[in-house]
Amino acid sequence: MLPTSLNSIHEIAASQWDDLLTDAQPFLRHAFLSALEDSGSLGGRTGWQPAHAALFDEQGQLLAGMPGYVKSHSYGEYVFDHGWADACHRAGIDYYPKLLGAIPFSPVTGQRLIGTAQAAGQLLDGLTSGLSQQGLSSLHINFTTEVENELLQGREDWLQRLGCQFHWRNRGYRDFQDFLDALSSRKRKQMRKEREQVAGQGIEFEWREGHQLSELEWDFVYLCYANTYRVRGQSPYLTRAFFSLLAERMPEMIRVVLAHQAGRPVAMAFSLIGGDSLYGRYWGCLAEFDRLHFETCFYQGMDYAIGNGLQRFDAGAQGEHKLIRGFEPVITQSWHYLCHPGLRAAVANFLEEEQQGVRGYAEQARRLLPYRMAG
Q1: What are the extents of the domains in the chain?
Q2: CATH code of domain 171-310
Q3: Which Pfam families does the annotation name (predicted)?
Q4: N or C: fewer beta carbons within 10 Å in the chain?
């Protein structure tokens, strides 16, 4: 059996796809992937062409799958291979198009290969053997789980890449003050002061689920989201329609915190929830307020996680400023199959050195955590 490349997630029944999901994370759900496509956030001139990989049996039952995209650039991936592409360009090697197994615009560790290990292995073998014939330089699978890491570890010609993010863990805190009590005195005072500064500006917060926002409120959410990109001279990845479609298809997994001043909305943070985790995704504000970003994106999420018994808060990629607020370093993994043997050898050498740097960085970061027992 050979894998089939599908131009839309709609070519697979939602029930077949979702039945193979093994974790409660929202990002790989058929509803999330279809909202990306149907909203126009992918396809067209975006440089993200859906090419979902599927392995079916003779009766048409889905055995294995991977969310796939043919890419003509490396934006929106959060595993940065621009240097590899530049090196290829200088050497006269085509790096694009490439095949990416990932959740677009979402640097979140989670299931990327669905189905049994045997079926997923067949899918991988079929994909790699067909890359050159399809004019693709490589296959990249980003932010994989331990199950997938075990499947890919030692697989011929696959290269492992490490990264580092910062996640907050709820260690059974009764409330936010209980969390503060676990910190060093100086950091405890700093966080308390930051929260007081926001409250002193008359800013109040309200949490909503997906079905509790009107279209006008979704307009505000999108305005804030898009503004975060535009102030940096960039275009937002997602369209306005994406948020309405997601609210329609999986409202129970959406959490939005709205910040108001004198009854007027001034900022928001958009998150998704799945299993025991809160995933902070997007934020934005329409006016500048002192320390509002930290309160909206970090402290509100911590408070919500504690109040709702969630064990983990992933507030997004990068940001050492999370570290001093109690977010702990977490190693992420991605995997890369490069068809050109010279490129593969060069990247393998680079990754070996980079891995040492990432592990050293994470260890150093752990020593800077603000907890009283962190040494």
Answers
A1: 4-164+330-366, 171-310
A2: 3.40.630.30
A3: FemAB_like (PF04339)
A4: C
